[in-house]
Amino acid sequence: MSSATGLIRKARTDAGMTQAELAARAGLRQSSIARLERGSANPTIATLDSVIAATGHRLILVAEPRRASFDEGQLRERIAMTPAQRLATFTASSRNLDRLTRHARRIGD
Asked: How far is residue 57 CA from its own chain's centroid?
């Protein structure tokens, strides 16, 4: 995801415009464009759209579902377990990891 700051600056530079030229086209002051590009302003979508349009670009917003960075099914399984079951699973996993570590060290020697 891009920031408003980055979108405005990139659209302006891609259009070969100065901040003053963009401000004139967007009906703003140059200092307003500078604040937007510096990140010291928090523009509304309407303002962002207007400024981007003044560069000859079009703003497209897309909402996409996020993909989890973990196995959601496995998480649901763990949540369904009792604390004792979770502890037993953790203990077994820890033992397996210890065995794998020892095995890997023997192979590496």
From this structure: 22
Per-residue tokens: 34 = 């500078």
DSSP string, 15-68: TT--HHHHHHHHTS-HHHHHHHHHT-S---HHHHHHHHHHTT--------PPPP
**Domain segments of the chain: what residues?**
4-54, 72-108
Would the CA dihedral through 3, 5, 9, 12 be positive or negative?
A: positive
What is the percentage of the chain residues whose pLDDT exceeds 70?
Answer: 99
Q: For domain 4-54, is the CATH number 1.10.10.10?
A: no
Q: What is the pLDDT of residues 12-45, one digit of tens each?
A: 999 999 999 999 999 999 999 999 999 988 999 9
Mean pLDDT of the residues in the chain: 93
pLDDT tier for residue 85 given thresholds of 50, 70 and 90: very high
SS percent in the chain: helix, strand, coil, step 5: 65, 0, 35
